[in-house]
Structures are given as C-alpha cells and as structure tokens.
C-alpha cells in the first residue's frame, strides 16, 4: 500500500477528491433533475462538513473525548480518526434540501445518488492508509500492509474490508442504474440505506480494528445504526411499493 505520495498522506488526497467529486456529481444530477442551484450547493457543503467536522465530532463522542475547543484547531483534524461521516452528511443534508427545494422527491434522490462514487474514493483512501482494516485470514484474496500503515498490523494477511465495502457501493450503483427512476422517484435514499446498511453491517463482521469501536451487546454501534436504517428503509419501501408510489406519480401526494 501507499500511505503517502511524497510528503502528503494518500488518504488526505483521496478524501479531498471525494469531496470535490461530490460537488461535481451533485451539479450534474441537479441539472438532470432540474433542481435549483442552491440545492446542490447545500448538499455539497453538507457532505464536506459531514465528512470533516461532523465525522470528527462523532469520532470524539464515540471515544468519550469530545471537547468543543478542539474543533477550532486544525491540528486536531490531522490527528486521531474520523467516524460516521456519511451519518453526519445525512443528518445535515436531508432536512436542509427539503427546506430549500420545491421538488422535494428529486432533492432527496440527489442526496442519495450523489454518494456512491465519492464514497468509493474514501474507502480506497482507507485502503491506502491502513485504517478500517480486517481480521486476520488465510483467504487467497487476503491483503497485507507494510510498516507505516495506520493501525493495520504489518505483514499479516487480513480481510480487505475496505474492498468489501467498495463492492457493496458498486452493487448500489448497479441497482440505481437498473431501477426505473420514474417509478421510484423520491425513494433512492431508501434504496441506498437498505442496501448500504445491510452491506456495511455484514462487512463489520470481518473488521479487525475494534479498538476504536463502541459495542452495544454483540454489535458495534455502526452495525446497529446500519441495521436499524436498513430495516426501517425496507419496511418503508414495501409500503411505498403498494401504498405511496402511485400517489406520488399521479401528483396526488408530495413529499
């Protein structure tokens, strides 16, 4: 792996690329869905803030070390870890785009459809960085990290959990492509949460970096949040399919 490109951490480069790509993707999706400029700009800002400030706050809270004063220090963001960036993004973006957009179904779809590609960049950054690493395994696709990788034990064959998560996201992209948008307009965020929540919860079983995880019973906090989000989304999708979708399509119901 390549934790650094010259003096710059590879993870930082890919993290910035993730944020930049999200802005770009939001712009093109917003044009296609005929959303106002302010909607995609706010969604992009929410992703940027969620992946930086939001993810740092959630990480500090999870590790019981939150101090508001440290959020004003650039050094604090360069040290330690981040967690829950996507969660922070959804918490910020969903209510704001609903307030700003007249076409609320399309705005919710923008929030979800704009996520997969930027998230792939983020997980590749984790792979190069050596964070979010897996348990030791003897599978032929196991990967090893060199000395200097952040967190991952050097020279030990591990589950490539970062790649597992990339594969989950690729599956989401395929599903988005296969869905007939007009029939499922406004529900892309539910599809995303159902698919990613399930995939991420399964992937967590292969994770080996449990030093920074908060357990609630047999599950990590991430697994619990993902399974709850997936379960609720699946129930709503079922109701959507039989009771809501036709009303939205014929214009008798709006979100």
Largest sheet: 2 strands, antiparallel
- Low-pLDDT runs: none
- Strands in their spatial order, largest beta sheet: 1-2
**CA radius of gyration:** 19 Å
Q: State the distance separating the first and last CA atoms.
A: 46 Å
Average pLDDT reading: 88
Please tell me about this protein's structure.
It is a single chain. The chain is mainly α and 255 residues long. The protein has one domain (4-249). It has nine helices and four strands, in the order ββααααααααββα. The chain has helices at 10-33, 37-62, 74-78, 85-100, 104-113, 116-129, 161-178, 188-204, 221-249, and strands spanning 4-5, 8-9, 215-216, 219-220. Strands 1-2 form a two-stranded antiparallel ribbon. The chain has a two-stranded antiparallel ribbon with strand order 3-4. A hairpin with a 2-residue loop joins strand 3 and strand 4. The longest helix has 29 residues, at 221-249.
Quick take:
By secondary structure, the chain is mainly alpha-helical. Helix content is 62%, strand content 3%.
């Amino acid at each position: 792996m390549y934790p650094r490109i010259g003096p710059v951490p590879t993870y930082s480069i890919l993290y910035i690329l993730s944020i930049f790509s999200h802005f770009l993707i939001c712009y093109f999706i917003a044009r296609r869905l005929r959303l106002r400029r302010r909607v995609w700009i706010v969604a992009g800002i929410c992703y940027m803030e969620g992946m930086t400030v939001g993810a740092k706050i959630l990480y500090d809270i999870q590790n019981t070390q939150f101090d508001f004063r440290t959020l004003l220090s650039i050094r604090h963001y360069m040290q330690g870890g981040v967690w829950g960036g996507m969660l922070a993004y959804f918490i910020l973006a969903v209510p704001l785009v609903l307030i700003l957009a007249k076409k609320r179904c399309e705005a919710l779809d923008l929030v979800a459809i704009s996520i997969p590609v930027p998230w792939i960049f983020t997980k590749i950054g984790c792979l190069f960085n050596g964070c979010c690493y897996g348990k030791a395994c003897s599978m032929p696709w196991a990967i090893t990290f060199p000395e200097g990788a952040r967190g991952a034990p050097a020279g030990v064959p591990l589950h490539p959990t970062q790649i597992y998560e990339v594969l989950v996201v690729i599956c989401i992209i395929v599903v988005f492509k296969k869905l007939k948008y007009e029939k499922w307009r406004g529900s892309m965020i539910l599809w995303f949460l159902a698919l990613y929540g399930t995939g991420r919860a399964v992937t967590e079983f292969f994770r080996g970096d449990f030093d920074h995880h908060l357990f609630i019973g047999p599950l990590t906090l991430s697994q619990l949040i993902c399974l709850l989000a997936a379960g609720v989304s699946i129930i709503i999708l079922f109701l959507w399919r039989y009771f809501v979708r036709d009303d939205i399509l014929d214009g008798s119901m709006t979100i």
